[in-house]
Amino acid sequence: EAQVTQNPRYLITVTGKKLTVTCSQNMNHEYMSWYRQDPGLGLRQIYYSMNVEVTDKGDVPEGYKVSRKEKRNFPLILESPSPNQTSLYFCASSLIFGTGDNYGYTFGSGTRLTVV
Amino acid sequence: AQSVSQHNHHVILSEAASLELGCNYSYGGTVNLFWYVQYPGQHLQLLLKYFSGDPLVKGIKGFEAEFIKSKFSFNLRKPSVQWSDTAEYFCAVNANSNYQLIWGAGTKLIIKP
Fold first, then answer.
1. Alpha-carbon gap: A4 to the closest alpha carbon of chain B (Å)
2. A64-76 burial by CB neighbour count: b if 16+ within 10 A, else e?
3. Following DSSP, what letter does each residue of B87-112 receive, concatenated?
4. How far is B105 from chain A (nearest CA, A)?
């Protein structure tokens, strides 16, 4: 089944303790992206990647890192989490040059992160 | 810069009422348009999309959207909503040459049984 897999689904951590949220897709998509979703603010893009070893900042990259060593994986790293990073995080992937039926973002199930 | 505007942040309707959620974008060139739905506690799922051709697009679960180029709009409609349509709805746009989606802020739809 074509899917984007995120882990963990729920995470509670303490301020300053490094954590990684994993994201993996099995559709051979070039493009992957991380979003955070906060009430009243919609989806805000954190980082995205066009392909292996190619990453770029989105709208709210501060406090986050990403890597794209393999096409299928795009982990989100919080080196020193703070309470303002408490949010719902989504990973998404898509083809870059798809058209019509084969184009669109596929989202992971989300990771609800609480930093205390 | 491109932007997407969803007119209503919250909409409350009774079952069987008709629905129209507004979406306007700011980009003068060719665009691809999407509506995504997020049911409570779930991830975003594609509801429908427009790439070209018939501006009236039909999606899943009885939803449809009409692309009106002159109005830069892509409004989502459903003739008769059900309680199970309670969700948050997001409009998104990308220009043909750009794989990035620009997202609206979302509209929370609550259907009263």
1. 11
2. bebbbeebbebbb
3. EEEEEEEEETT--PPEE---EEEEEE
4. 4
Instruction: Report the residue of B44, B54, B107 to disrupt the A interface, i.e. the one with the largest count of A CBs within 10 Å.
Output: B44
R_g of chain A computed on alpha carbons: 14
Taking an 8 Å cut-off on Cβ atoms, the answer to whether B45 and A41 are in contact is no
Chain A residues in contact with B46 by the CB 8 A cut-off are 104-105
CB A17 within 8 A of CB A82: no
- pLDDT for the residue numbered B94: 85
CB B43 within 8 A of CB A110: yes
d(CA A41, CA B111): 22
Q: Which two structure tokens, joined as six digits, stand for B46?
A: 């594609």
For A39, residues 6+ apart whose C-beta sits below 8 A from its C-beta are none
Closest residue of A to B35, CA-based? A104
Q: What is the DSSP letter of B12?
A: E
Percentage of chain B exceeding pLDDT 70: 97
Q: pLDDT per residue over A42-74, tens digit each?
A: 899 999 999 999 999 999 999 999 999 999 999
pLDDT at B2: 76
Residue A26 region, left (φ>0) first, then alpha (ψ -120 to 50), else beta? alpha
In the prediction, which pLDDT does B95 show? 76
Q: How far is B1 from chain A (nearest CA, A)?
A: 13
